[in-house]
Amino acid sequence: MDIRDIEIDLRRRLSKKRFEHTLGVVVTSVDLARKYGENLEYARLAALLHDSAKELPLLDMQNLVKNFNLDDDMLRNGALLHGVAGMELAKERYGVTNSYILEAIRVHTTGKVNMSTLDKIIFLADYIEPNRDFPGLDIIRLAAKESLNKGVLAGYDMTIRHLLDQGLSIYPLTILGRNDIIRSIKGG
Ligand code: DGI
Ligand code: FE
Ligand code: FE
């Protein structure tokens, strides 16, 4: 499916709020791609599809990922699972084959160790897109202007703080991803 048709399909499938968030992530990802030297079309397509599975019932998400060996924490939580499910939907429904793009969709919620530039751009744009507004967001926006890694670190910090405040579990990959970014920043 070409990108215009994907956008039309998503406009129909997603709630207004989620679709507007998606368009915000597209604009912000393209800006970040320009700033940090990533392919603009990859950024556009990954951003457009990053939350494509977010509003599916948990059972549908689980069905999409049935060929993967995922742990129960991931499988029982749509807030985590929609990245992997979104990757599968991008393949099955929208015909995306580029593994660099698919990976950025897969890891956009938790991040991972050794994120690519595109992974970081989608992860960060998801926080700072213009429709987002929560206390502390200005810190992430400022960090994103300084460097991609500093922006991503500020995003991790915000998520982990939020999870702690809400008494929620922290998915281990989130911690490993944050440690890895700190290592990258220290190493230059
Ligand atoms: O899909 P979005 O709302 O645009 O953003 P997202 O994909 O970053 O998802 C945010 C949700 O994911 C939010 O409810 C918190 C949850 N989340 C992110 N990291 C973790 C997490 N939940 C758990 N349990 N553990 C995590 O490490
Ligand atoms: Fe998401
Ligand atoms: Fe999102």
Structure description:
The chain is mainly α. The protein has a single domain, classed as Hypothetical protein af1432 (Orthogonal Bundle), CATH 1.10.3210.10. Helix content is about 70%, strand content about 0%. It is built from eleven helices and no strands. The relative contact order is 0.12. Bound molecules: 2'-deoxyguanosine-5'-diphosphate and fe (iii) ion (2 copies). One fe (iii) ion (FE) binds near residues 54 and 82.
Structure keywords:
188 residues; binds 2'-deoxyguanosine-5'-diphosphate; 70% helix; globular; single chain; Hypothetical protein af1432; mainly alpha
Distance between the termini: 40 Å
The count of strands amounts to 0
**Shape designation:** globular
Name the helicity range: 55-70%
CATH class: Mainly Alpha
Average pLDDT for all residues: 97
CATH architecture: Orthogonal Bundle
Structural class: mainly alpha
Relevant CATH superfamily:
Hypothetical protein af1432
